[in-house]
Every structure is written in C-alpha cells, then in structure tokens.
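As a warm-up, study this chain.
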Amino acid sequence: MKKLSVIIPVYNVEAYVEKCIRSVKESGLEESQYEIIVVDDESPDKSVERIRNTFPNDPAITIISQKNKGLGGARNTGIKASQGNYLLFLDSDDVLTPGVLQELLLIAESQETQILEFGAKGVDMQGKEIYSVQSTSDGNVLSGIQYYNTTRYMNSACNKLYKRTFLLENELFFLERIFIEDFEFNTRAFYKAAKVYAVPQIGACFLQTENSITRNSNKEKKQKMVQDIKQVLDITHTLYQTGNGELSEVKNFFEERLNFLVATLFYHLMKNKEPFEIVKGMKEELQNKGMYYVDHPIYQKNKNLFRLLILKNIYFYKIFSSFL
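Now compare it with the structure written out below.
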C-alpha cells in the first residue's frame, strides 16, 4: 500500500498544474511511497496534455478523465480510486512546501490520526503573502469536536491529511457542483473524527486568483453561492437535529457553524445588493424552518460583528447595505 495519495482535480488550469505536481514530486517522499491521482474533470484547455508532456510515462501519476462533476465530484473520484493510507487534496494552483510531506506523514502515522491539520498561507499572483494560518493541538490527539471547540480548523480541505479508511468507513464524500464544499465536508468529517492532531508547520501555499467567487462580479455565480450556502445550512441543521446535540460540546460545535452559515448567507445577500424585501423574506423562511441561527458567538470577528449588528436587527440592513 502507498503511504499517500495526492488527489488533484484538473479543470482549465494549464498555467498552474505543472508547478503543483512538481511540488509533490519534490516533497521529500520516495516515489514508491506515494501516488498522484489527476482527475481530469472534462477540462476544456490543454492541462492534461501538458501533464503528459511534462511527466511522460511517470509511474507515480495516474490520470482519470470523467464528465464534468465539479471540484467535489472530481475529489470523490480520486477518493474511490486511491490506494494510499492517507489522502491529501490539492487544488491545481496549490504548491507544497519542499520536503514537508515526509515530516507530516511521520507525524500522522505515529499519532494514528484520522485528520492531521498543518499550516498554510495564501499568496497573490506575484507570490506575495496575503495571509497565514497555523494551528497546533499542543501534542494532544483530540476528537474533532474537541479540536474545533478549543483550536478551530481552517475550512479548507487542502491543508489536511485524511486517513483513507476513515473517509470510506464513514462515507465522507464531497457534495458535487456546489461552492463551499470544503466547509460542508469538514463539518461532517470533524463531527465524526475521534483522532485529530495539528502541527504549525506551513505545508502549502494557496494561490488567490481574481476568479475567486468572493471577488468575482459574475451575477449568476454570486446567486449560486447564496443558494449553495442555503443548501449547506439545511444539511448542517439536519445533521445537528439528528445527532448528539444534547451534549454541550456538540451543541457548541454546531451552533457556531450554523451561526457562521447564516451570517455568511446574509452577508452575501448584502454584497449582492438584494432588495430588503428579499432579505426579510429569507429571514422569515429560515425562522419558519427553525434555521435562523443568530444567538451564538462566531469565532470570526467580522462575522460575529455582522451577526450582532445586522442579524439581531434585520432593519439595519437598509442602512449598512447603502455603503456597499
């Protein structure tokens, strides 16, 4: 069995994917220890051709082509095809820190983790650092709930090693064709996990492109983001209601996640400059479903302030939206 499967979805990433794959090959692992599963999600450009030309007949690289299923669907294909003890999800424009995988795998194996989180930083198109995220469990192996309540985790699925059998046994796959698939996936994964460990080492750089949904001006994509957040809110609410919500630590985990989703939903409505009647109608719909979560503090300070100022008094929406 391979120690690691690196799953890389490919869609219209000809300019980045070679660097991503090369960073895996220069990560410090022997070729016999890992596999790279490239999932061609019906890419319209020459990404796959470039991979084949740059890494001809490379025994570590497997290319799987499929009809387009989106990022989540491509990752699911990779999970099902993988043979590694641990899985690492990378986006095609991510780059690993040289030599880091050997160290991370040793830690994951020695601690017998189901999820190992490592540090990451975001960079712009010129390579300038925009943000850096680092966490540590201080040498302790925790449940996913305990880890989140004491340390938190980065919503990304690309700064973690996941034990393959843990994902398969708990049927942990990504939702297909939605935005914020990482948020939804990690909510379920950490809820199920019994062995989580974190180290502060920076293991990857995430490229922040102009096509990010948070900066994209495409109206259709922005409206889809709102609907996807609403869908994830509904799924998370259902999981909370059918789980062990009576336990205080579980209650805190879900209440914070759900309050974050509600705040994010209404924040996007404001950014999209939706009329107040639409916003008011959304509030009433969520209230009728018991899903208007606004009473629990959110760890992210700006979202918590938004919760307190806007969601606690939705009529302030008219005032604040005029400044956007």
